[in-house]
Design a protein that fits this description.
Elements lengths: L6 E8 L2 E8 L5 E2 L5 E2 L7 E6 L1 E2 L8 E2 L1 H14 L1 E2 L2 H9 L8 E7 L3 H13 L4 E5 L13 H7 L4 E5 L12 E2 L2 E2 L2 H23 L5 E3 L7 H9 L3 E3 L18 E2 L7 H8 L2 E2 L2 E4 L14 E6 L10 E4 L2 E2 L2 E4 L2 E5 L7 E10 L7 E10 L9
Parallel strand pairs: 5-9, 5-16, 6-7, 8-9, 9-10, 10-11, 14-15, 17-25
Antiparallel strand pairs: 1-2, 3-4, 12-13, 18-19, 19-23, 20-21, 20-24, 22-23, 24-25
Length: 374
């Protein structure tokens, strides 16, 4: 059993809005179920993994070989506790503790090779997992699961959630007679798509999680806030762990396939901790031509975080930083690349040796036609 849990009220900000939430303090050593002493743990922390294909015949960037996937699962079985995503999110929002080193497994796009190559391996360990699907593609595209398979898997420790009807770019605007659609029309069109997808999943499976994985990880603050108001929880594709003070309209997930499938580098991410960000100056991840900040400023809680050892990386390259008290400032590029990019910042824990706090700020930039490319 875990020792007593202390709740701390944190004021947390993301973008242009703030909220208060409860975070579980780190405790002295506790007794595990086997009676062994465990070093101080973070009981308010979740790592979410993101996969797409489990196959050697699909695009390398979004695929992991079955043998490599089996290696991931074996490592998780030995060193982590795999939890159901829905149960974990519910616990975090209620301020309830999770097991130390809790991990949730997710897949995007509902590919048939998940059933063929991943499902038997996951069943071997009795690991729960979640698949975000595009309902219009189920039973229609040859590389997708069928509804019969989805229903059968839903009885075998698998939950299904929303990835929009048809995997559209949510940030793209439509044009009519040379005029771009208004923000109101855009939001209405996007929400109709998302709500239709949710209704289809509920009609087929009998439940609605109201979980949405953003296609391509793309979102803006306005959409994220609206989804949250409608009861949705959003999942993006920037990296980092999750805690009760996270922004539940755009939760980070670690990609674990393609170039991110190496188990040595994945171990660091699996053991990561959610960065306790108190404030940031980035109000929206969508890069605008005018008025976009020249720097990223993060104010963090430093009780267990060694801010002087923080490093920030843009597209993998380490950046020069300025640290003042508990604030880190990092220069942003003069010209962002078109498409998706991110700034990742990590800092070691003072108490939990070998574990790093992790923060990721995504950026999305449209092309010259004001469209967001694949």
């Amino acid at each position: 059993m875990f020792s007593r849990v202390i709740l701390l009220l944190l004021s947390v900000c993301w973008g242009s809005y703030c909220w208060s939430s409860f975070a579980l303090a780190q405790q002295p050593a506790v007794e595990s179920e086997k009676g062994a002493s465990i070093s101080p743990v973070m009981l308010d922390n979740l790592v979410i993994l993101q996969y797409h294909h489990v196959s050697i015949k699909t695009p390398i960037s979004t695929s992991i070989a079955p043998e490599k996937f089996a290696e991931h699962l074996a490592y998780l079985y030995r060193h982590h506790t795999v939890v159901d995503l829905f149960d974990a999110i519910k616990a975090l929002r209620a301020g309830e503790p999770l097991p130390d080193k809790a991990v949730a497994i997710t897949f995007d796009d509902g590919f048939a090779n998940i059933l063929l190559n991943a499902h038997p391996l996951l069943q071997k360990y009795d690991f729960p997992y979640t698949i975000f699907i595009n309902p219009e593609r189920i039973s229609k595209d040859r590389n997708q699961l069928t509804w019969e398979e989805v229903k059968k898997m839903s009885q075998e420790n698998v939950k299904f959630a929303n990835h929009t009807l048809d995997h559209l770019h949510l940030l793209n605007r439509e044009y009519s007679n040379g005029d771009v659609e208004t923000e109101g029309h855009w939001l209405s069109r996007i929400m109709h798509n998302i709500d239709q997808a949710e209704a289809l999943i509920e009609s087929q499976l009998g439940y609605s999680l109201q979980f949405l994985a953003y296609p391509y990880g793309e979102f803006d603050t306005f959409l994220a806030q609206h989804l949250e108001q409608q009861g949705y929880i959003g999942f993006a594709q920037h990296s980092g762990a999750v805690f009760s003070g996270s922004n539940f309209s755009a939760l980070p997930r670690f990609p674990a396939a393609g170039r991110y499938s190496n188990i040595k580098t994945l171990k660091v991410k699996l053991n990561s901790l959610a960065m306790p960000v108190l404030n940031t100056n980035i109000h929206s991840p969508v890069v605008s031509e005018e008025g976009f900040p020249a720097t990223l400023k993060l104010t963090v809680a430093t009780a267990d975080l060694n801010i002087n050892a923080m490093n920030c990386f843009f597209q993998g390259d380490i950046q020069t930083k300025k640290i003042t008290a508990n604030t880190v400032e990092v220069n942003l590029p003069d010209h962002f690349p078109v498409g998706r990019s991110r700034m990742n910042c990590t800092a070691p824990s003072k108490i939990q040796k070998g574990r790093f706090y992790w923060f990721s700020q995504p950026f999305f930039k449209a092309n010259e036609n004001r469209l967001f490319p694949d």
